[in-house]
């Protein structure tokens, strides 16, 4: 894990804040909140944080606890259309902006988040 993105941006603290800010937005979103079966978004925040940390070179806790990410399979039961993708990205954009990362890191993370959100689309129906 030496000299990787995870460490360069600030490690666990940064990913914890990113997911905290993201779920603050989701908590009041009429489109996204119903996709979370748990009233408490804390477990979802933790799962996303662990996934992002592992993806960016941090600890492999996500893999140890949940196995392979299989993101599309894990989200297939939810209707992820362009409106849901855009809402997810809007909350993630707001969360990322609050971090005030250096521009290069912000751009790299944002590029990934946009690609990941697009990959999760599973319908174009409203």
From TrEMBL:
GO terms for molecular function: heme binding; metal ion binding; oxygen binding; oxygen carrier activity. InterPro entries: GlbO/GLB3-like, Globin-like_sf, Globin/Proto, Hemoglobin_trunc. Keywords: Heme, Iron, Metal-binding, Transport. CDD domains: TrHb2_Mt-trHbO-like_O. Belongs to the truncated hemoglobin family. Group II subfamily. This is Globin.
């Amino acid at each position: 894990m030496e000299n990787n993105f995870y460490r360069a941006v600030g490690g666990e603290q940064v990913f914890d804040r990113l997911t905290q800010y993201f779920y603050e937005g989701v908590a009041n979103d009429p489109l996204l909140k119903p996709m979370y079966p748990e009233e408490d978004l804390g477990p979802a925040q933790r799962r996303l944080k662990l996934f992002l940390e592992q993806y960016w070179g941090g600890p492999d806790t996500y893999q140890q606890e949940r196995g392979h990410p299989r993101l599309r399979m894990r989200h297939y039961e939810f209707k992820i259309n362009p409106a849901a993708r855009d809402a997810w990205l809007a909350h993630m954009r707001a969360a990322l902006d609050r971090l005030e990362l250096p521009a290069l890191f912000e751009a790299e993370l944002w590029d990934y988040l946009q690609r990941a959100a697009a990959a999760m689309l599973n319908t174009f129906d409203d």
